[in-house]
Design goal:
Shape: globular
Strand content: 5-15%
Distance between the termini: 35 Å
Radius of gyration: 28 Å
Order of helices and strands: HHHEHEHHHEEEHHHHEHHEEHH
Largest sheet: 3 strands, antiparallel
Structural class: alpha+beta
Strand order of the largest sheet: 4-3-5
């Protein structure tokens, strides 16, 4: 907890290099195609953007030219930690040793260290990691050694295999996964993990850049599960109506090898072709029935909102808490909608459409198209001037508004006059 939340030198180094520490001490290897334009920036806002699939690979634990990840735990009884030093030259070895000492209490780490004596012929063994039914994974209680089955199994007899287990072999990379039961949705579970609870330490929210990696990883997992369900239930969404040999020929496809099985995404899957088409047609229907939009309004997120800054943990910046930024923006968006559609601050709105987008830097913004009641449509310049202002408010008549415009709407000199300008 000290490394996650304190302000001393060790803790700062740990958090600044947290993705490297996590990658080194993880039992698995992270596989991901990163957008390096935003991940490895020397300045600006750090953003973890992944292209395609993220995966976590469990290697075999047999001898390799250089041990890494799970294999390193077999050597942690070495007082010099020479193998870990070789793999962490860019990290503070004092912090590395502290983490090794902390992980000595991990029951899986204890088992691997106790089995390190067999490292000369590891390829002849395999490990079964039992997923014990007695563990309450919803609470993430710490398992004790007696509840964790990590055992050596000699020979090829499968009689003693657990029904639900992960098996690691010494001479290949096979992985066995048993049946599992789903009690809550993946999305609900990770939403639960993201909540802030008084007096309960949540390391996820302290993870800074690792928090972004975790969030992207979990979203890809959620989206992957949704797509898998759609692939496995094509009959229920009547996908056969959208494909077939006749349809392929109708679009000009004459090569039999190019005609495959098509997976159809339903209109309920956000971002699919049918979903985007439906949204477009709904927006056009509003124009057809209520007329052309009168006001184009944009609402942007300000990372300096006091609702965000007041909830940051010590040492954090808004980019470290994308969950907090999104929640505050959503709350203010709902307030904006109430002001527009119930309090009628711009007049009576008869129809509207809006979309929420996220910038490449992670901050959200919303675009509104408002169709006003005929009595509130803007038709003369004087009416536009009551809604839109492109000049500084009177400093003496509207001091608060003047201060806000100067702070948020004006750009300071840059270039040679102000090379460090960040507005």
């Amino acid at each position: 907890m000290r490394l996650w939340s304190s302000a001393d030198a060790d803790s700062r180094h740990f958090r600044e290099s947290i993705r490297f520490f996590n990658g080194h001490f993880a039992f698995t290897t992270l596989g991901v195609s990163l957008d390096n334009n935003y991940t490895n920036m020397k300045s600006g806002v750090y953003t973890f953007r992944a292209h395609g699939t993220m995966y976590h690979r469990v290697h075999s634990f047999g001898p390799r030219s250089r041990p890494e990840h799970l294999q390193l735990y077999f050597y942690d009884d070495d007082p010099s930690l020479s193998h870990r030093k070789e793999a962490t030259k860019q990290l503070d070895q004092h912090v590395v040793r502290k983490l090794v000492d902390v992980l000595r209490e991990n029951p899986y780490s204890q088992q691997f260290r106790s089995l390190g004596a067999h490292k000369e012929n590891l390829e002849e063994y395999r490990i079964d990691l039992n997923i014990d039914q007695k563990l309450d994974q919803r609470r993430y209680n710490r398992p004790v050694s007696s509840e964790v089955a990590a055992i050596w199994v000699e020979g090829s007899d499968l009689a003693n295999r657990f029904n639900r287990s992960i098996t690691l072999y010494g001479d290949n990379n096979e992985k066995y996964k048993g049946n599992s039961r789903l009690r809550v949705s993946i999305r609900d579970y990770y939403c639960y993990r993201l909540q802030t609870r008084p007096m309960i330490f949540n390391p996820i929210l302290q993870g800074a850049r690792l928090f972004q990696q975790w969030g992207v990883d979990m979203f890809i997992k959620i989206e992957g599960c949704r797509l898998k369900w759609i692939r496995d239930h094509q009959r229920e969404i009547r996908a056969d109506l959208y494909q077939g040999l006749v349809g392929s020929i109708a679009v000009g496809e004459m090569r039999a090898s190019a005609i495959g099985k098509r997976i159809v995404l339903p209109g309920t899957h956000q971002g699919s072709n049918r979903d985007m088409k439906r949204r477009h047609m709904d927006a056009m229907a509003l124009v057809q029935t209520s007329g052309k939009p009168d006001i184009f309004l944009t609402m942007t997120c300000n990372p300096s909102w006091e609702e965000i800054l007041n909830e940051l943990l010590p040492g954090q910046t808004p980019q470290d808490r994308p969950d907090l930024v999104a929640r505050v923006f959503r709350a203010k968006l709902e307030t904006m909608k109430e002001m527009l559609f119930k309090k009628h601050i711009l007049g009576v709105v008869v129809a509207h459409v809006y979309v929420v987008e996220f910038q490449k830097r992670g901050l959200p913004h919303a675009h509104f198209l408002l169709i006003m009641n005929s009595n509130y449509k803007l038709v003369v310049p004087e009416q536009y001037d009551r809604v839109i202002s492109a000049e500084l408010p009177d400093r003496h008549k509207y001091p608060e508004l003047y201060a806000m415009v100067v702070k948020h709407m004006m750009h300071d000199p840059c270039g040679n006059l102000n090379p460090k300008n960040i507005h």
